[in-house]
Each structure stands twice: as C-alpha cells, then as structure tokens.
Amino acid sequence: MNRPTKSEYYTEIALSVAQRSTCLRRRFGAVIVKSDQIISTGYNGAPRKTANCIDLGYCARKQLSIPAGQNYELCRAVHAEMNAVIHASRLDMVGADLYLAGLDVETGNQVIHPEPCLLCRRVIINAGIQRVVVPAESEGFHYIDVDDWILQDRVSFK
C-alpha cells in the first residue's frame, strides 16, 4: 500500500469537501492546514439562509454564458477559499497552507491547476496564509507562494 503524500492527502480531503458544493458549474473545496492540523474547511455555495443554485435549478452566470473567471458579482456563491477563511481564526491561519481542489460538474473531472480569483487572493493574503497548493498536470502539485501575489500587486499598481 502506498501512503499518500501530505499534498495528496489534503487535496483528497479538499475534493471530499467539494462534494458539499451547491454550484452548478464547478464544485470547489478548500482546506486550511497548519502544522499538520486542519484549521478549517470550506466549499462554494450561496450564503447561509439564501437559495442555492442547485435548489433554484439554474446558474445566472451560466445562463448569460459568462466565462470562468469573469463577473463574479453575478454569482450567488461564496467561494470555497473565502468560506474556509471565514470559519477560522486569523491567529491559526498565519503561516498556514490552503489546499484547493475542484470538480467540473458537467464532466466530473478534477479541475487541474485551479487559481483563486482576485478577491479570494486578497482574502488569503489578509488571512496570513503562506502557501496555496493546487493539483497540477501529471498527478503533481503546484505550490503558490502567497508573497508572489503581494509582489505582483505592488508591480501592477506602479
């Protein structure tokens, strides 16, 4: 029996969390880990006490043919990364890793190399998370240093 690496282990947990998603396009799960302890999890879905897309039977962004990564203000969902951060203490998240994994609803395939949106990046930076880990091609992983986003932001606003 091959023991999974930590990246494989936490990514599998993120995929399991994603099963709770209520999105009709993609199901994402996020797991925040620090010192080999799970701090928090989150999946994408409508805010508490509001109707989910799966309950409404439609996705406004899909009906309007909005490409992935655009016009998130029209989406009912709170992203998995945001939900994971909302449910954790900042003190616990400083220096932590966030594992992000997703499934395409139509194909059932795992999303390869998912990227947190710009709003989620801001939330991740503010939470003090150090690194984001996402599945990459060939069963590998891509490790994103959150400090790189901060540097990119500084360059883009000069």
Task: Explain what you see.
The protein has 158 residues and is α+β, with helices and mostly antiparallel strands. It has a single domain (6-156), classed as 3-Layer(aba) Sandwich (Cytidine Deaminase, domain 2), CATH 3.40.140.10. Helix content is 34%, strand content 22%. The protein is built from seven helices and five strands, in the order αββααααβαββα. The protein has helices spanning 6-18, 53-56, 60-63, 80-86, 90-93, 118-127, 146-156, and strands at 26-34, 37-43, 97-104, 131-135, 141-145. A five-stranded mixed beta sheet has the order 2-1-3-4-5. A hairpin with a 2-residue loop joins strand 1 and strand 2 (37-43). The longest helix is centred in the N-terminal third of the chain and has 13 residues, at 6-18. The protein starts with 5 loop residues before the first helix and ends with a helix. The mean pLDDT is 93. Its cofactor is Zn(2+). InterPro entries: APOBEC/CMP_deaminase_Zn-bd (IPR016192), CMP_dCMP_dom (IPR002125), Cytidine_deaminase-like (IPR016193), dCMP_deaminase (IPR016473), dCMP_deaminase-rel (IPR015517), Deoxycytidylate_deaminase_dom (IPR035105). It holds the Pfam family dCMP_cyt_deam_1.
